[in-house]
Design brief:
single chain; mainly beta; Elongation Factor Tu (Ef-tu), domain 3; SH3 type barrels; 2 domains; 6-stranded mixed beta sheet; 2 helices; elongated
Length: 177
């Protein structure tokens, strides 16, 4: 069983009980849904897992998971898990695709221009259907949405928590079209 010292990542959000036997309907928020499988340990909580269960079975239902959890035997017990986040232990970075980053790795990173100037800090990642955007908060509180793709994102340096950008002219000055 996983330990609390390991790094946990949110992979879903418990939405409600499903049926009378304790199944939990979970909205999927991961790029690797195949990791949810019988026998894995999941955690439920708000910012970190606080309650832990072994997955007995996983079924797919309308784009979500239906989880049967060991120890959750009825609707009342399942209802108590919503609306918590559902966590799995993080994958080793070496097993991830090249240039794949977890949201928690990017939030809080400083953004730097080609000349080294500080552009602001990543506050959140947004997926609005056309690709991922970084919501960067500049000093003074102004927010800028930056497409998270090449050639704008030049390099991500996780060790120093810096994202090197080459933004279009005017994006950070407010003069962009």
């Amino acid at each position: 069983m996983a330990t609390r010292q390991e790094e946990w990542l949110a992979v879903g959000r418990a939405r409600r009980a499903h049926g009378v036997h304790g199944d939990v309907l979970v909205e999927i928020v991961t790029d690797f849904p195949e990791r949810m499988a019988p026998g894995v340990t999941v955690g439920f909580g708000e910012s970190q897992p606080q309650r832990f269960f072994s997955v007995h079975s996983v079924r797919h239902h309308k784009g979500a998971w239906l989880l049967a959890l060991d120890g959750v035997r009825d609707r009342d017990a399942a209802e108590q898990l919503a609306p918590a986040w559902v966590f799995l232990v993080a994958q080793e970075r070496s097993s991830l695709p090249e240039n794949y980053y977890y949201e928690h790795e990017l939030v809080g990173c400083r953004c730097r221009a080609p000349d080294g100037a500080d552009l602001g800090q990543v506050a959140e990642l947004l997926d609005l259907g056309g690709g991922t955007l970084l919501r960067v908060t500049m000093d003074g509180g102004r927010e800028v949405l930056v497409p998270f793709r090449s050639p704008i994102v030049v390099r991500v340096d996780l060790a120093s928590a810096v994202i090197h950008l080459d933004p279009p002219e005017g994006l950070f000055s407010g003069d962009a079209l």
